[in-house]
Amino acid sequence: MATFPPGTDLSHIPLAENPYGDPPNFINPINEEGLVLSVGLPLIIISFIVVNLRISTNLKVGRKLFVDDCKSLHLGPDFLYWLFCFGFKETARHDWDIPISAVLNPSFAKRIFAFNILSSPTFGFSKAAIIFLILRVFSPKAQLRWSCYTVLTVTLIYWVQIPLTIAWCTPHLHGHWDAAVSERCEKLGFTGPMQGVISVVTDVAILLLPLPIIFGLNLNRKRKMGLALVFFIAIFALVASSISMYYRVKSFQGVDSTWDGPKVTACAVAESCVTIIVSCAPSMASFWNNVVSKSAFYSSLRLSFTRSNSTQSVTGKSGGKIPGQFLTPESSSNLIHSERSYFELQETAVEGPQTVIRSDIEMNPVISQFSITKSTTIRQSTE
């Protein structure tokens, strides 16, 4: 960074020259704060919901938590990582719309330090959570198990940034948070592309590792495809990490890095949150089967829907009447709904002229198809 004479007002000097020749806009320039908010907030809310459902379901059904469950709790650092992005509101602009004073104050250096520290658990825990899930749920054979261990080892590289940040982005002994700290911290720029490459590699591995296990399971084709689809959702994380890597490299090259920074952040949050959501998918299935489907509300809703569908089935097939017979108040009372979710025809003795009535009733409720054919002969003697 260039040196300026003492007394120079750095709040009126832009960080870089505008390549288009326009004067700097320090008052109301375009910025990318909205990008970080619109991408991060919905995904963090969804991740928060599914993580809470995952923890509560596993405690209720299995009465214990596993390693991958604990790893999913890294949503806290994820949220802080996203929250700290708003501390860079005044720098989420083009370089030429940022005054030099904005990056030389102590608070900016402290935010950079916190941001770099939080990036390690944000990425490291999210990748580890889904790898531990694969190891626990599928219990893969030795070759695939060692592949999972290799991916876990690669994720440890994320944590290298913590000691590097402490060494280069903090004041030295008896030092202060000043411009010297910010300039020294710029040397960590190489960790951006490094994290981008690691994210792409691990996302590809997470996408491919479960597939041979899934298609080797003794399941029908439909179930296999459904299970594979859950992990294929991780392709969105791969797309996000690829875009993030592009902007990390571009930012490292020093071309309008403050404008590319929010894009990196938005993609990073999206990548981490999608990974969390994918790792919670099995617990969401357990939540549906063990909690929702057994609730009184779901049972009531299911019964109401079944009755409605059964009534429509009878009306559609007989034109509103049971074939071969008119429904009188007496005869309609013979058609009752049993506790086993099907219809029974009860017989009653009727005195009067001898008649023969044949009723063939077919009904197809929603959940399981069945048919009932009931032939009833009512003999009545004529006195």
From TrEMBL:
Keywords: Membrane, Transmembrane, Transmembrane helix. It comes from the Eukaryota. The chain crosses the membrane at residues 34-53, 147-168, 197-219, 226-247. It is a multi-pass membrane protein. GO terms for cellular component: membrane. Residues 90-287 form the Rhodopsin domain. It is found in: Membrane. Its main location: membrane. Belongs to the SAT4 family. This is Rhodopsin domain-containing protein. It comes from Botryotinia narcissicola. The lineage of its organism: Eukaryota, Fungi, Dikarya, Ascomycota, Pezizomycotina.
